[in-house]
């Protein structure tokens, strides 16, 4: 008896000791703690490919790859520039903040990858295709009108369709070459008042994603019923034209908008996202079981914290990455992790003008950070992160302002302002929606270091800024930025390297490096 009790005690002790290890080896939600919204996923063989929204950024519609649905790496973009219009170019007083290209749809059909999106700036629907999704090249097609929040779908009979709209959902048949809507083809409302399964009032339904599984059509949409939360609704039908029957697919934590993907082992998952404050809209995975021909999402209707998948390897360098700006022969001028705030003027930036540096040269007069062209950005990541730059101001001119910013409507930044022959380190805080100079300190050297630290833990949503004269000793600068996810920008905060002129053009700021980490300074 004593031996049996001892064995039970030892077994319990072993379980207690190894349980945390087993828990740590599992993937956790969110699978990407960064702004990767409106995701669409397609599995080809053992590889998963995901497209997402980056709106006014250039290049746009990022393509990411994963072998396990958990750890993702950016492998390309569907386009370099969406269109040559003032709003996308950030010219003539116009901008595309919160616009650009929205929710995309990724598909693999007859050996070709397709990514489609739409834009109110071009008033068109855009379809990009390639045989090699990781290397390109991409073929571009576009046509009017802009079919909002659509799902591109290839049926078994070879016909191509799009489902789009909000509230009443419209099915249109496309031409064989995907160059437009087919004249005389299917064009009808297939579901009226599609939000009724979740109450029928409030936002949506939006962002259609259509799938054909075991002969049935399944349509995913997001709604936001009044007094409730963002909700997944699912409709199914035996024919693509309907009739459709609908139900709530998931209503938990506001995790919604996405679709279905099957793993090679036959397991099913729903890929969705969650609005999570100033870091942006962050992706989740939810296990799916099939019951009576319906996909049942979650564990007892809830989004699980852990998944029966391998633990992720982190977001650096797949989603965010450091850059020394040193290029070897044959390497890209800018790694894929970078995107410009709006279409860049490619004559005004270089990684070769000064070896080992990113040079941003001014070519026009700008009023502020948000109107400045050629700001180079990448995502912030959660739950915490830190971005650091080294800046050489030797070639800046009177009136120039360059440094490191956190880009959103309520932005914050640290940099160097040149006034006549004098230089000053400055912190600007726009927490209130209006930029205020929080601190200004004279600078008597040519190289200075800046750091921005973001804390998104439990939607704390604050950032602190620092400067250093030697890259080792960091001095707090200015006031704490209270970050906010604003709808004019509709995007999570991004690190931004910037240089703009307020008096004279032709000045240059040289950035020696950008470093990102998933840690911040201990709170005092």
From TrEMBL:
Keyword Cell division: no
All residue ranges annotated as the Beta-xylosidase C-terminal Concanavalin A-like domain in the record: 331-516
Any Pfam family: GH43_C2
Keyword terms, alphabetized: Glycosidase, Hydrolase
Family as reported in the entry's similarity comment: Belongs to the glycosyl hydrolase 43 family.
Record's protein name: Beta-xylosidase
Organismal lineage: Bacteria, Pseudomonadati, Bacteroidota, Sphingobacteriia, Sphingobacteriales
């Amino acid at each position: 008896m004593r031996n049996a009790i001892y064995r039970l005690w030892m077994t319990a002790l072993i379980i207690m000791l190894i349980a945390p290890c087993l828990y740590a080896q599992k993937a956790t939600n969110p699978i990407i703690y960064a702004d990767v919204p409106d995701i669409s996923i397609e599995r080809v063989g053992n590889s998963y490919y995901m497209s997402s929204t980056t709106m006014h950024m250039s290049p746009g519609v990022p393509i990411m790859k994963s072998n396990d649905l958990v750890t993702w790496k950016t492998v390309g973009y569907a386009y370099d520039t969406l269109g040559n219009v003032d709003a996308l170019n950030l010219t003539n007083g116009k901008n595309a903040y919160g616009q650009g290209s929205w929710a995309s749809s990724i598909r693999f059909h007859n050996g070709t990858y397709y990514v489609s999106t739409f834009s109110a700036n071009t008033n068109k629907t855009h379809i990009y295709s390639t045989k090699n999704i990781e290397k390109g090249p991409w073929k571009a097609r576009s046509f009017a009108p802009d079919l909002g929040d659509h799902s591109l779908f290839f049926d078994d009979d070879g016909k191509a369709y799009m489902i789009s709209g909000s509230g009443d959902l419209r099915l249109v048949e496309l031409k064989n070459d995907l160059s437009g809507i087919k004249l005389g083809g299917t064009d009808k409302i297939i579901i009226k008042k599609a939000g009724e399964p979740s109450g029928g009032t409030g936002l949506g339904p939006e962002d259609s994603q259509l799938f054909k599984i075991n002969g049935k059509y399944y349509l995913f949409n997001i709604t936001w019923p009044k007094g409730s939360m963002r909700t997944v609704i699912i409709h199914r039908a035996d024919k693509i034209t309907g009739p459709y029957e609908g139900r709530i697919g998931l209503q938990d934590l506001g995790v919604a908008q996405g679709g279905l993907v099957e793993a090679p082992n036959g397991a099913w998952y729903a890929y969705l996202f969650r609005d999570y404050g100033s870091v942006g809209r962050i992706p989740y995975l939810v296990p799916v079981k099939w019951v009576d021909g319906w996909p049942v999402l979650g564990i007892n209707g809830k989004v699980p914290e852990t998944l029966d998948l391998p633990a992720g390897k982190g977001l650096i360098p797949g989603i965010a990455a450091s850059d020394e700006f040193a290029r070897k022969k044959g390497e890209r001028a800018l790694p894929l992790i970078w995107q410009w705030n709006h279409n860049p003027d490619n004559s005004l930036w270089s990684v070769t003008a000064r070896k080992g540096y990113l040079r941003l040269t001014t070519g026009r007069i700008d009023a502020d950070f948000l109107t400045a062209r050629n700001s180079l950005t990448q995502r912030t990541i959660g739950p915490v992160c830190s971005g650091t730059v080294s800046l050489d101001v030797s070639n800046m001119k009177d009136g120039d302002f360059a440094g490191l910013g956190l880009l959103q409507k309520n932005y914050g930044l640290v940099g160097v302002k040149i006034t006549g022959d004098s230089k000053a380190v400055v912190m600007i805080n726009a927490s209130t929606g209006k930029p205020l100079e929080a601190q200004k300190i004279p600078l008597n050297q040519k190289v200075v270091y800046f750091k921005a630290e973001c804390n998104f833990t439990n939607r704390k949503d604050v950032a602190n800024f620092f400067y250093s004269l030697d890259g080792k000793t960091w001095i707090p600068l200015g006031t704490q930025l209270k970050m906010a996810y604003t709808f004019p920008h509709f995007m999570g905060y991004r690190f931004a390297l910037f240089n703009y002129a307020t008096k004279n053009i032709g000045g240059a700021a040289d950035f020696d490096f950008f470093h990102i980490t998933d840690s911040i300074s201990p709170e005092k």
